[in-house]
């Protein structure tokens, strides 16, 4: 049987690397669109390098996208690339829009011209809801983005829906809520906390400064999320789905859980630093997973506590081995 071919943008990120692993296991021929850069950023995918073909291209450059699609002839295209750090979207709003919004127009146009029967997955984000009118949010909740990243993602979402309607492209948007893993950067609060708990346990640090402990998020595990993305492209008809855990936890609960994993009392180490406060905190972002559960049979395979534990364990092992 001829293997299916998939093209992933954002291959070197958390989701890209997990998705590539999943697709390689399923026998796909995997191509990754990677921006040329002078420093190597392939750290998350070195273990897959024999199974993935890297193609050079950039979401800022339409002709490079057309070349890559023509060369790889993918059956499935997953657009996971974006400038995804919300605070940076305020300091670089135009660049965020170039990648996260217009990059998707360029990609959709390239698909339409070069491989119109390819199936397309667009990584939408719960940030499109911003200050939502209702909680939990569903696929029908109005978009009210509150930062340049959310605005760019809303544009990309609607462009995908419009290409589906106008050109009959198979395009799906997965509205993912925050998803975490040991491959997440420590600038995000989940990994910041699990990593710090491990460091403190090993005597490598003695304090953790955090922002708003009452902020709540709907956190799910990145491996569960990428499985949902793949599932969306295996259907007869394209549609949009929320991928979330359906539950929220506060930063305080996260700290408590992470420190209890290493047998420490969090209050002895954590202090609140206004530098980490967000001026534009979303109200209550929590996704309803009724649609994806009923229609695709997807649901998270890891609980909040399991995620915390496996991430703390990962950092304990990694830090012990590195002798840092
Ligand atoms: P986001 O969902 O993309 O905004 O992911 P983050 O992990 O950066 O932030 C999650 C939540 O944690 C936000 O509501 C922050 O206000 C809150 N938070 C509290 N303390 C911190 C901190 O020290 N760093 C970060 N990044 N977030 C923090």
Automatic annotation (TrEMBL):
GO molecular function: GDP-mannose 4,6-dehydratase activity; NADP+ binding
Organism the protein comes from: Atlanticothrix silvestris CENA357
Function description: Catalyzes the conversion of GDP-D-mannose to GDP-4-dehydro-6-deoxy-D-mannose.
UniProt keyword Transport, yes or no: no
Family the entry assigns: Belongs to the NAD(P)-dependent epimerase/dehydratase family. GDP-mannose 4,6-dehydratase subfamily.
Name of the protein: GDP-mannose 4,6-dehydratase
PANTHER family in alphabetical order: GDP-MANNOSE 4,6 DEHYDRATASE (PTHR43715:SF1), GDP-MANNOSE 4,6-DEHYDRATASE (PTHR43715)
Cofactors named for this entry: NADP(+)
